């Protein structure tokens, strides 16, 4: 037995956060929203998927943001994503501590930590 792939990452958000998630993950990160299966849609939340990149936003009644644990998105144009984040009012925290990569961190609208990086 071996793990063959990472199917998706689920991040939590508070009740009613779908519109903010759509703005951040859909508009700013450019991930298309896909319909949730009918049985799961009853729980709220929203899913964003582009090929093998799958972020599922789930509603958590006692929500607390993930400030350390995080997904890291590798991009082909770090500067463009950085500019889009800043233009969207998102605070960007630059970091150069990972050898071989340029990167920065942002928080999604709910305070979840997100890493954006590009190989040098």
Automatic annotation (TrEMBL):
Coiled-coil parts of chain: none
Ranges for domain VOC: 5-119
Superkingdom of origin: Bacteria
Family matches, as PANTHER family: FAMILY PROTEIN, PUTATIVE (AFU_ORTHOLOGUE AFUA_3G15060)-RELATED (PTHR39175)
Protein name: VOC domain-containing protein
Organism: Candidatus Phaeomarinibacter ectocarpi
């Amino acid at each position: 037995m071996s793990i063959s792939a990472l199917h998706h990452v689920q991040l939590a958000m508070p009740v009613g956060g779908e519109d903010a998630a759509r703005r951040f993950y859909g508009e700013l990160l450019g991930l298309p929203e896909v319909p949730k299966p009918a049985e799961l849609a009853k729980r709220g939340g929203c899913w964003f998927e582009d090929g093998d990149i799958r972020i599922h936003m789930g509603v958590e009644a006692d929500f607390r943001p993930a400030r350390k644990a995080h997904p890291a998105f590798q991009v082909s144009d770090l500067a463009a994503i950085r500019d889009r984040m800043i233009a969207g009012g998102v605070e960007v925290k630059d970091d150069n501590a990972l050898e071989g990569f340029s990167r920065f961190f942002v928080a999604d609208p709910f305070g979840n930590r997100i890493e954006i990086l590009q190989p040098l």
